């Protein structure tokens, strides 16, 4: 290296520098009788309180005649200074078990029956102990620097022994019982998905090119509502016939109407996908009536199956709103429920005119939250609210007077011809401006329950505005989607495609396998797919969920009670028992929907 260009002869290797420092430390220890010479006044006051690279006693605080072993500066802070005196700060003790600071951890992964009566030291006490240790508490086992000792020698063996002894001690019960919760299920998502993207380090080759017998077996199992038991651990998913048949079964759904040259989902804001397509019913009234009559029979058949609990739920997707009908026992409801979103003031008025009673769940939830927040108000605040209500009632009375000709004072002043009076329509819109502001917003979601859902079915069949009168979707009935067969339905299959790509990770590349599923993905399909991927990908995958945004508000909480009755009759609806159990839980997502779903070590985490 001395012959290379730009090489300095005075440059010393790191090993030589370390050897010189080690030699200097030994010579200073022999001459002064210990490491106290480091903190002598002759060396300067700034060196007397120098701390090494890692937490531990100061250089000048050691015992005389003995060297202080330096810790590895590249080790973590927890592993660097492993003195038992310092570890007392973090060890749980049983001396104060009956104090007010007792902790009782509750973890779903561990034993639920175990109760811990341990406590942690307060932060102030831990800080005082740490300061005392840093000021002058020497190590219990000081070691001298020998000739063969390295400057950066690690003490991992000592740390591992201490850690093992702590975990085996009875005082460490609270430490060993604390673990992250294991979530074996994720909340039910009632919104419709347009695309799912699964990614995993393991390949999805088992989902490609099914054999004819496997595809036929999957279709048969779907039509008959039969499910095969999937092993919890699959060594070779590609050779598992049960897994491949189950995957084909998960992709099936039923739809009406069915037009092979048109994609009938989504319908809201999908005018561009219908533009330029052949629509022979647009100008043919007889064909439109035929389509509507067949659609009415299919909708009536679906409601009959729903009432008999042979169909768990179904969707009605029109060009302006989406309706979700759920059987009794689902989402924490004890009766049949229906959600419509988004709605307009005209649609709500038409439903009222037909005698359909409904609620606005999001507005009621907002009102209840305001009432709960106002319970702690003073009497003065209550008096102000009463005055506000009186003023509102007076304003309504004043508006009523205006409707009845409250502009008579203009005639008395003689200026009735100079001022233009507002018409009755403008006055009515002004009074109902709050209801008009809800149109096409998530807060406009409508909930219908009980026997009024049957009236809603008749309303949808006879509603003329249900079908677009103009545009690319003119004359086309709404799309019906259901997990089970019904009259006039056509069996469709979701599209699945697996791709293996390489992504750059730091300095190299990593193989990432992906599985893409597209189509109208309903809640039962999502749960069935994750149930299969769980053992196939060995408990680890990530999912990106693309939601049809107008349907995200269908996750609104509408449960009549905390826990719905276990509907045993739903076992005949053709869904997996695990899927039924998930859909029976009350909705917890609110106006949002699942965006990301991760499975790590057979435990779910999600983002909404």
Quick overview:
By secondary structure, the chain is of the alpha+beta class. It has 19 helices and 13 strands. The protein has a seven-stranded antiparallel sheet with strand order 6-5-4-3-7-2-8.
Tell me what you see in this structure.
This protein is α+β, with helices and mostly antiparallel strands and 608 residues long. 34% of the residues lie in helices and 14% in strands. The chain has helices at residues 14-32, 77-80, 84-87, 123-136, 156-168, 173-177, 212-224, 241-250, 271-274, 285-307, 345-353, 361-373, 379-403, 408-413, 424-431, 433-436, 452-462, 523-536, 577-583; strands at 193-200, 252-256, 313-317, 322-326, 337-341, 446-449, 479-482, 490-493, 495-505, 508-521, 540-547, 596-600, 603-607. The strands form two sheets. It has a seven-stranded antiparallel beta sheet with strand order 6-5-4-3-7-2-8. The longest helix has 25 residues, at 379-403. Residues 34-54, 58-65, 78-119, 138-156, 166-177, 390-404 and 562-567 have low confidence and may be disordered.
